[in-house]
Every structure is written in C-alpha cells, then in structure tokens.
Amino acid sequence: MADTSDTGKRMRIEVLRYRPEQDAEPFLQGYDVPYSDDMSVLQGLQYIKDWLDGTLSFRWSCRMAICGSCGMMIDGEPRLACKTFLRDFPAGSVRVEALAHFPIERDLVIRMDDFLAKLESIKPYIIPKEARSLAQGEYLQTPAELDVYEQFSSCINCLLCYAACPQYGLNPDFVGPGIMALLHRYNADSRDGGASARMEVAGSEAGVFNCTAVGYCSEVCPKHVDPANAVNQNKTRAAGDYFLRLVTGKGGAK
Amino acid sequence: MNTPDPRRPYVRPMAGWWRRNPFFVEYMVHEATALFVAAYALVLLVGLLRLAQGEAAWNGWLDALRSPVALVFHVVLLAAFVYHCWTWFRIMPKTMPPLVIRGKRVAPGVITACGVAATVVCSLVVLVVAWGATR
Amino acid sequence: MDVWKADVAIVGAGGAGLRAAIAAAESDPSLKIALVSKVYPMRSHTVAAEGGSAGVVQAHDSLEHHFHDTVAGGDWLCEQDVVEDFVARSTEEMVQLEHWGCPWSRKADGHINVRAFGGMKIERTWFAADKTGFHMLHTLFQTSIKYPSIRRFDEHFCLDLVVEDGRVQGVVVVDIASRRFTLIQANAVILATGGAGRVFRENTNGGIVTGDGMALAYRHGVPLRDMEFVQYHPTCMPGTGLLFTEACRGEGGFLLNRDGYRYLQDYGLGPAEPTPRNKAMELGPRDRLSQAFWYEQQKGRTIDGPHGAVVHLDLRHLGEAKLRERLPQIYELAEEFLGVDPAKTPIPVRPAVHYTMGGILVDGRCAAPLPGLYAAGECSSVGIHGANRLGSNSLAELCVFGKTAGVEAAAFAKSVAHGRADVLLKQAGASQQRALALVTDTSGTERIATLRKEMAQSMEDGCGIYRQADTMQATCDKLAELRERYRRVRVEDTSSVWNTEWLLAIELGYQLEVAQAMAWSALERRESRGAHQRLDGYGERDDVNFLRHSLAYHAGADAPRIGYGDVKITRSAPGTRAYGAAGEQAEKAEQERAAQPGPAGEAHRG
Description:
The complex is a heterotrimer of chains A (254), B (135) and C (606). Chain A is an alpha+beta fold and 254 residues long. Chain A is 33% helix and 14% strand. In chain A, the strands form two sheets. A five-stranded mixed beta sheet of chain A has the order 2-1-5-3-4. A two-stranded antiparallel sheet of chain B has the order 1-2.
C-alpha cells in the first residue's frame, strides 16, 4: 500500500457497484480516498477494499501492466487500473466501471468465458510447417521474421480492445480484435503451417468483416499490439480466399 | 449439496453507444461524411443525365450549380470530403501489412502523409486538366 | 458438492503447472487431468518474469559451468544430483518452448540469442526481450489448449488437499464466481502454486503470490524446506517494489550511489570495468548486491527518496535504441510509473523481496514425502537454488521440473486406484464447512488488512536482508499473536458471487503459517549463508553445523518444529564463494587443486 498519510490530498472515486444477489441493476457508489501522486487507480481501489469497504470486488495481480487482470472503464475509457494514475484526474474525482461490452459478474468483475472460448477456437499454438525433433535444435527465425508477428504476440488478453469495439458490443459473436491479433500472430509465424484452418474462423460470419475500422481498439491497447491491423490484414486475406474459392471451386485458404 | 448458481450477469444496453466516447463520435462523423461523398456522386449523376437530355437541360444544370444555395452546398461538401479523406488516411496504416523499406518499418504518420499528399496531387492534376479543358 | 474424477489434479496454472499438465497429457493421452487455478492461467505470476531463462547453448559454455555457477551461487546448500539433472535438461526445455512458438530473441543468423546474467560465468540466458516470463507463460497456456485431456478449472480456489489411507486422493476447490464447491478426486496431485513473497511488505510479487500450495502441503505434515532463504532482488521500484530486471545489468547497466560511484567495487565484486564482466560488479549474484545496498545505506551513501533510501540504476550509456530493443518494458515502467526517461536519467531502485528459495520438500522426481503429492516451481524445494537463486534459473526450473512432476504424477496415478468417493466427500465437506465458517461467523473483529499489514511489516523488520536473533524473535512472537488474532478475523462480505474478501481471509491464513515457517527457520539457522545473513555473531558460514537443509514442520496452532536434513554433495565440495577478480583467482586455484591427484577438496569454512 502506498504511503498516503502525509499528502492530505483526497480523491473521490466513484465505483459502479453490482452485487447480483442484492442489486437489481448497477449503481454508482462514491469513496473518498487519500492519495499521493504516485498512486495508481488500482491502489485507490485497494485502499477502498482494505480500509473502507471490504465488499468491493475487482480483479488484479501483477501491478505492472503485464498480467492483464485489471482492465476497467476509467472515466469512460478502457484502461489498466494499475497504470492509470490518480494524479491525472486533477478535478479530484474519477469514475470506475466494469469493462464495457461484457456482462458484469459483480462490481468491476466482468464475465470473460466468451474470450476463452474464442481463444480455444483459433488453434492458438504452432502447427509446424515442417517437423523438427528437439535434438535438431531450434527452428531458425531471423529477426525480420520475428518482427512480422512479435507485436501480435504481445497481447496480454486484458480485453481493453473489446471494451473499445462497438461492433463487439453490438454483436458478441464477433471474434473481436484481441483474438484476431492472436490468430494473426500464429499465421504470421514463419514456423507455422496452420493458417488455412485458422482462416476459416477469420472468414466466417463471426469473423473479420464485422469490423468497420473504428480503430479505437488499437488506441487503447496498452501493449502496442495494434489489433486493428491484424483484423484488417486478414480482411484482405479472407477476401482473397473467398475469390480464390469462387475461381477454383474449392477451399483454398493457402 | 451445492446451492443453485447464484450468478446473474448484468448486460448493459448498447443504445446510444456512439455518444459515450469522443472517439466514437468522431468515428460516426467520419462515417456520416461518406453520405456527402454519395451526395456529390448523385449531383454528378444528375449532370450526366442532363447532358444526355440535350444542351438546354445541361445548361439548366450548370445554372443550378451557380446558384448561391448550390455554392454553399458545395463548400459544405468540400469540407466533408476533406474530413473524410483525412480520417480515411489516418486509419490507413492500421489496415495494411507492415511496409518495410531498407529494413525499417515505415511509420504510420508517414503512410498517412503519403496518402494525403497523393490526394492533393491527384486533385491538383484534375483541377489543372479541368481548367485547361474549359479555357 | 460436485465430484469430478481426474487422474492427475494440478493446482496452479503458471509456468510449472502448465508444463506439468502438458507433460502428463503427453505421457498418456487417456489420463484425465484437472488444472486448477485461482486466476485465468495467463494471469499467473510467471507472467511478470522479465530477464530470461538459463540453458547452456554456446560452444565455450558447458553443463559443468552451469552446475558450478548454480551450486556456488546457492552457497552449496543445493542438492547437487538434482542440479546436475537440471542443467542437463534445461536447454532441451528451452528448445521445446521454441518449437511451441515462444518468440525468443534471435541473432542475425536466426539462431536464438543469449544474454549475460548475474552469477553466471558464461552468457546462457535465453530471452524474449524483457518479457520472457510473459512469453513463456502465454506459449505454455496456448499450447496447453491443444490437449483435450486437460480440463481447466479457471478461477477456482483450492481450499484443501484430501488425504486418505496415507496418500493424497484429491483437492477441494471452490468456483470463485459462484461459490460452488467441487471435490476433484485424483490419484496424484501436483502443487504448482508459486512463491509466498507477499508475506513481506515491499515485494516484486503479484497479489496472488500468497503461498497457498506451501500452506496446503505444510498443514498435511509435509515439511517446508529452507524457508529462511528469501531473495531480495537488488533493483526494484521504491514504494511498489516492481521489478527492474537483472537484464538491465546484463545489458551493461551500472549501480551508482549518491556520489555517482559504482559502489559494488567496495564489496569484493570489482574491478569496475566499463563493460560487464560476467560474475563481477553489477553481474554479481543478487544476495551480494542487496547486501551491498544495505551497507551503503548504513554508510549514508544512498539517496533519500519519498519511499526510503535508493541507489541509481544507470542505463544512460546504453542509448535509447538499445534500451527500446532489449528492455522495452523496463523503459515503459520507468517512464509511466516514475516519470523517468532511462536514456536520460538514472532509475532510482532499492532491493525488494522477490523469490522464495525454499518450499515444499520434494525429491529429484518432484515427489513429496506424502505419497501421491508432487510439487514443482517456486512453491517447491527440489533443491537447485540452495541459499540463493541465480537469476534465470527459476524460469528454466518451471519447465524442467514441471515436466518431471507431470510425468512422475501421471505414472503414479496409473499405479493406484481411485478411493471411495463417499469417504473423500466427507473430508471435503469438512473442508468446505471450515472455509465457509469465515463468512457465516460474523462475530469477528479483526480487519484483514490490519493483520496483513502487521505481518508484512514484521517480516520486513525481522527477516530482511540482515537479521539478528532479537528482531527475528520479535517477528516470531508477532506472528504467533497474529495467528491468534486471525481466529477472530472479520469478513464483511457474505455474498457468494465473487466474494474476494473471503478469499483474502483464507489467503491470509495461508500466509501467516508460511511466514511462521520462514521466521522460525531463520531464527534457528545460526550462521550466515546466501540470502540468510546475520549480524549477531553468526556472520560466517558454518558448514560443520549448518551445511544442512532446514525443515519446518507444522505444529497446529503452535510455532513450527524445525528439523534438519542432509545436503546431497556429488561433485562440488563447499568452497569459498567469491566473485569479481577474487572469484577468478579462486577459480584458478580450484582448477590447480583439482588437477592434483588426491581426495576431492575438503570442506572450507568461510
């Protein structure tokens, strides 16, 4: 817990509460939290939980923007609570809500099994282009080949991009930006030969063509993954596959 | 024995979603300006139709374009076009595979700038050609 | 209560748990594997590991070197046969991760690259920029999806082991979202729940690192070994304790005191050279560097900051381009959390608790003394870290021993039959009632946060970088008091959906008992070795009396009983642990001595 005793500064943190066994619908509850300039919104919430109201529920763990647990709407924007700082709300108040476009399980906790199911559907593992035994050592991959997919492999599954995607909000069947980034991460890996199986998902009814290039997903991504780029690169590819099928009369997402 | 599942996930409504965030408002404006592009296409289409109907019809169409209302309309169209063009090229880097020149990725800003520059050049060429043709 | 019949149940889905699940699934696809985690697997704290993972790969390196670095780094409190196995298999595990897609950083020719790390004679640390743990975890998690026999219990909290007929036969878990309980019946259970660093105040660990598995095994009579050895990482963010990877120094970073002086040269780590020399200066082992910080602070040569004394981690001379390429996460952490541009300004750092060297006693096959129970990763004490872990050995450990645990547990599971569910259910029901009592009994008065804060402060006061009997005793007394007060802990939240306050109370119970094992093991070790350093007349290593593993046994509500076990020595007799120029001299002398015929070197004291 940050040392908050000496600054005298206080922040009004308005939290969207929802306890399914008590509340018919979510409501805002305000807390006054003493803070110092190096305190994150997450530390503000922890202060509430520890000293003001033990019933407030939220996910968190690493505190350093890598575990992806603490995505929330902070003053209406999808942010990681651990790397959003209270000093950046000079008006003295900040509103914190559960990530948009997901069902609220309780308070700031969203239900994310939809994301996991989609992740499982895209075969998020290397399907080797050519077999290689451990004794043969590593696959060779140049820094340039690594660079093609490395940014997409940096997705921490924090779901901020989903909260930024109105198309996902309107149609939760859409595979969405984060999953497309991971799908592209494997398709673009020089070691992988499984693209055609994954392109079935990308080109499906729930696939890339749900995206209307809003682009906010890439703006809010805390890890510079640029999921919009993954989605749109695969629009071109999925369209190509479609016309190839028309011409050849068979499945051909090669 | 386990109790029944006490979960009751709350799904928030999407109505009015585009007003919730300045980014979404901007996106909607961008999308809306596409209607102006369509409107101008209609204007041109009508001109084509008039041309096919003979010289009098064509001149009537030209006169209509010279009216103050039409001029104001065209200024509005131009503004919408410029905005649509700028926002379109701004999102362009996100829609294409990485552009690598001499081992380095081309920055998004450069791609946008190139797009805008190409638009300006094309527009100038059209203007010059049109000016030359009507002299 | 629901019952789910598994062959192998794994608690914890970080690096070790996932690797174990994959190994068990591959060893026999017909086995049913339950993978339980209180968070989604990709949230596990493996995710926060930064610098890299060790595996011998360069032509001028050898397994022998990795072995000696590890054993000397651990101040000879290592199980040497296990270390031999570890260094022999770690490279293969790194290659396996590569085949599974881990985006290792590469050399221009496409081969994987390695970087220097503290206490390592030759560069052998595989890395994926400065997000190695993140990439390893996501690679393992996503690869685990390939195996249909792995049934995940995400966001399920483990409340107890079920022990019947003298062997482990399952675990009791609760679904955090619904508070529905499940008995997972299993013939073998692998604990892979990570460390316990959150029992200390300033630490690099995530909120989930609360020693759950250690406490579960400990309560069932399995001793916790070498718990007094808690690693302080020398370069952490003041206040939050967030980690600035050792790779900062591996890439050439300096540590400076208030005079801009590379103070490590005053602590037997010199000479100070402009580029990193392995096993010298900033590339010394973590225990020595944290201890040097402590002395600098005593001498008044540290810098005062809002969160206590700091020194400077100076990366400026590496330049922005290299920092962005090799240490991008560190760059962003410094910029966003501290407002410091590391290419222009040194980063203020101080030591913070990072790693639990000790853990659940297991043998080289990852088997605990309780039949059917296995453990791997930070929660276990398989014996490779001794009194001080070398950076980049823990990520390799996850893979090597995660795999061992998976294979061994699968084999054991096939050798026994499932017990009677009704008997096990009765036990599980009792565990459920004990856990629920925390919410149903509303007479409590003690605030969770108060108890936790007092525990963490007391551990820092008594079991910090330097220790002495009176403060350690005070910590032991404090922990006894806190355990007594814990019986009156108050949980305000009575709801059954996502009741995290209830879980915090259970975790606090785990933490208090693990903290006790640490503090008592420390008090009883009357010598200084590795990360356990005393100021009260036990400042030297004492191989005669303490070249032994400590074993903390649970004793109900009382303080733990501390026993001792032998240390397995195969090839490396305890010697002088020296780094820098002194280390090179000692190594030369050792080589000359080894070349002479005669008995292998006699144990030194020092």
